[in-house]
Amino acid sequence: MKPEKYNSRMKTIGKTAVAAILAMGCATITWAQDASGPLTPPPAAEHNVRRMTTRETMEARMQYGYKKTVKVTEFGKDGQPSGEFQMTTQLVVDPDGKMYEKVVDKQPNSLHAIELTPLNTRTLGQLPSYPLTTQQLSKYELRYMGTEKVDEIDCYIFDAKPKLMERAHALFQGVVWVDKQYLEVVKTYGKWVTDLGDQHGEDLPFVNFETYRENVDGKYWFPNYARSDDTLHFKESGDVPVRLVIKWSDFKPLPASAVPAQVTPDAAAKPKP
């Protein structure tokens, strides 16, 4: 069963949770305003953003293995789960040093409204981890929006909006929370967009993701939890709320011989016999 259309709505995440980011380089610098006037930016703002973006890199992330659990839930009219799909994969290294995600647990699929295929099942857990890097920063319009605590961590709040939409590369549009002391991204909320519109998996509604990060080995902040809520609309049966949750755990350094690669839980990605 396929819905007539998807309705992806940015949920409310607090009075401070909409806007853009500090600026540097070629990025456009603007400051958000409240009723009393422009917000006062933190000291050394431009320098702080440079430091933050230099830490946003996949290089460190690809040096660690992990376990990943993807769970899709449909909810009935009573608000209780009415269908579910759950799969757990483990990043492993084959004898040639190549990495791939091995399916280690897969629960029976009881979803009714969402039709899972081999293609969209592979894309469920493929969420970009680092929206703002030094190389990409000049493509964004950035604004400082204030401060807020995230799990007892004092954070700057930024919002990033692409200056120009691209077709070949999706860009992030949303909110970023940055640890004030260590200048590490600890949370993001937003979506990935191109000039063709919002990005999501084939026949899947999930667009906006709220993502939290975990400190690993005292020096890296890796995504460990992501969630997306949406609603499917059907003419006959009405609305069906759906939720996607992705959890990463068991971060462990990989052998030095491991070869970084795009990993998917696809059977075709298994190592050679």
Helix content: under 10%
**What are the segments in which pLDDT stays under 50 over at least 5 consecutive residues?**
1-31, 262-273
- Total strand segments: 15
Q: N- to C-terminal separation? A: 38 Å
What is the helix/strand order?
Answer: EEEEHHEEEHEEEEEEEE
**How much strand content do the residues show?**
over 45%
Rounded to an integer in angstroms, the radius of gyration calculated over CA atoms is 20 Å
The secondary structure category is: mainly beta
Task: Output the number of helix runs.
Answer: 3
Question: Can you walk me through this structure?
Answer:
The structure is a single chain. The protein has one domain (5-34, 44-251). Residues 1-31 and 262-273 have low confidence and may be disordered. The protein is mainly β and 273 residues long. It contains three helices and 15 strands. The protein has helices at residues 45-54, 58-61, 118-123, and strands at 5-7, 28-31, 33-34, 37-38, 64-75, 81-93, 99-106, 140-150, 153-162, 171-179, 185-194, 197-198, 209-216, 220-234, 238-253. It starts with a strand and ends in a 20-residue tail after the last strand. The longest helix has 10 residues, at 45-54.
